[in-house]
Structures are given as structure tokens and as C-alpha cells.
Specification:
68% helix; two-stranded antiparallel sheet; binds protoporphyrin IX containing FE; 5 helices; Fumarate Reductase Cytochrome B subunit
């Protein structure tokens, strides 16, 4: 392995950390709204929190397209040789699962919003053009789908963070550093 392939590119690192902050922030706000606020008692506050949730979450859809393009057009560091083939396979499957969630969670969120007759706004700047209109039948499917997928994504992220910490503090290898450092 040469020096160049020890670390992710600066752009890949930037995309990773910005998307992590947005996704976890959106997750916490959605969780707070979905489980601690109700329209009966919190009225417009709940509406504002959901609007915030949507506005910060939708950029993930644009960023994941750039990220997938970047992933397949740039080299990535190899996993440590000390990892068994099974662990390497599990790591790749976990990463694939995370990419899937980064697409599926915001897309089901938009479908959930549109099918309930609401917009999918981006950073309070513009709205994503509606791909579906008011549709209670679709809403009955995508609403639970968004919630279950967001919970599954939360579990995957916890596993991902724990694995990164184990690499850093127990195995003391280069895995976490590959996402935080550069050669220079
Ligand atoms: C980036 C990704 C996103 C994450 C991680 C995420 C996560 C969540 C979570 C954890 C919940 C609460 C689930 C529960 O009730 O237990 C939720 C609810 C919700 N999400 Fe998302 N979401 C994302 C994107 C979106 C997008 C793009 C939209 C719409 C444009 C959206 C619309 C909603 C709505 C309407 C709710 C229901 C909130 C409530 O009833 O109070 N989400 N989301």
C-alpha cells in the first residue's frame, strides 16, 4: 500500500463528516418531534420542528449523489491486513447498508411529506419539485417505512461508530485516521 492510498481524499472526508453531522442532527430532530411533540399540545411548535427536520435533511439527497460519484471515481484506503476476510466482508456490507440508508431515509421522508400534501423544502431556500401528489394510500406505506428505516439507520450508525472506535483504541490501526488525516 502506498502513502497516497492510506487516507481518503479531502473531498471524501469532507462529505463523510458533513453528511454525518446533517444525518445525525436530522435524526435527533425527527426523533424529538415524532416521540415528544404532538399537534394537540404543541401545535405550531411541532410544525416548525418538522419543517426544520425537512430543511436540514433534504441536502443529504444531493450530497449522496456527489458522494457515490466520488466513491467510484477515486481510490479508497484498504482495510487493515490484520482483519479477517469475514470482518472485511461485514465492514463492506455495513458500508453498503449505510449508503442505502443515506438514499432511502431522505427519499421516503420526501414521499411521506408529499403524499400527506406537504412540501419537501431544502435549507429554507427552495422546494424539491413534487414527484407525487396527495395520496393517503401511499402515505400509509411510506410513513411507517420512513420511521422503521430511520430506526434501522440509527442502529447501523451506532455499530459504525463503535467499530471505528474499536479500530482506533483497541486495534490501534489506521482506520479512523484514514477519515481524519492527510499525508501533508
Ligand atoms: C436525512 C435523513 C433523515 C433522517 C435521519 C430522518 C429521521 C427521522 C426520524 C428518526 C423520525 C422520527 C421517527 C419516529 O417517530 O420514531 C422522522 C420523522 C419524520 N420525518 Fe424524517 N428523516 C430524514 C429525512 C426526512 C425528509 C427529507 C423528510 C421530508 C422532506 C422527512 C420527514 C419526516 C416527517 C414528516 C416525520 C414525522 C415527524 C413527526 O411526526 O413529528 N424526513 N425522521
Amino acid at each position: 500500500m502506498n502513502n497516497q492510498s492510506q487516507y481518503y481524499t479531502r473531498t471524501a472526508q469532507w462529505l463523510h463528516w458533513v453528511m454525518a453531522i446533517i444525518f445525525i442532527g436530522a435524526w435527533l430532530i425527527g426523533f424529538f418531534s415524532g416521540n415528544f411533540l404532538s399537534y394537540e399540545t404543541d401545535g405550531s411548535f411541532k410544525g416548525n420542528v418538522i419543517t426544520l427536520h425537512k430543511n436540514i435533511a433534504t441536502p443529504i439527497i444531493f450530497l449522496i449523489v456527489i458522494r457515490i460519484f466520488w466513491r467510484y471515481t477515486h481510490p479508497t484506503p484498504e482495510l487493515p491486513a490484520t482483519m479477517s476476510p469475514l470482518m472485511k466482508k461485514l465492514a463492506h456490507l455495513g458500508h453498503l447498508g449505510l449508503y442505502f440508508m443515506l438514499l432511502a431515509v431522505p427519499i421516503t421522508g420526501c414521499l411521506y411529506s408529499w403524499s400527506a400534501g406537504h412540501p419537501a423544502p431544502v435549507l429554507y431556500l427552495f422546494e424539491i419539485p413534487r414527484l407525487v401528489q396527495d395520496n393517503p394510500d401511499l402515505n400509509a406505506i411510506v410513513k411507517p417505512l420512513h420511521i422503521y428505516l430511520s430506526w434501522a439507520a440509527g442502529l447501523l450508525i451506532v455499530g459504525h461508530v463503535l467499530a471505528a472506535l474499536k479500530h482506533h483504541f483497541v486495534d490501534k490501526d489506521n482506520v479512523l485516521k484514514s477519515m481524519t488525516r492527510q499525508n501533508d
